[in-house]
Amino acid sequence: MAELTTLTPPPMRREMARGRTKGLLRDKELTRPALASLGGDGQRAVPGSKSRAKAAIRLPGHFSVGDIVFLAILAAALTIVGALTMPLAMTVTLFGVRNAAAALFYGLFGALALTKVRRPGALVLLALFNGVILLMM
Questions:
Q1: Cα–Cα distances in Å, from 33 out to 15, 28, 30, 116?
Q2: Most exposed residue of 15, 46, 117, 126, measured as fewest CB within 10 angstroms of its CB?
Q3: Does the reported pTM lie above 0.90?
């Protein structure tokens, strides 16, 4: 029977302990190089990292530091774009043009944030960062 390692995923360990390895993996595939990319719980490690512990710094809401920095930079860019477009839009007296000018950029930056971060609450975090910046003005 193949050797049970800590790199073997838990469901596979259970089946191997029961002696049912025929349908799972062949014995030659249960070597360490074949399972080197698997973590202790059967999930893949982050590419390019040597261990799962050094993979990435995670915050309580499952946002990485890079995600939060990206959203903060987007909020700052949104404020800068708004500062450039609002003086031009304020001169127009047509109903809704001022809001349409702001909505265009808020929509574009929001879509960019959602496509890059892809986590629940990313848009809320972007709006929170933008609100903190605008609160100081």
A1: 21, 10, 8, 33
A2: 46
A3: no
CA 132 to each of CA 40, 79, 118: distance values in angstroms, whole numbers, following the listed order: 41, 11, 22
List the Cα angle 100/125/97 in 5-degree steps: 5
Say what angle helices 65-89 and 122-135 make with each other, to 10 degrees.
50
Give CA 55 to chain center in angstroms: 13
pLDDT higher than threshold 70 for residue 60: no
Residue keyed to tokens 């808020």 = 106
Cβ-based neighbours of 20, under 8 Å, separated by 6 or more: none
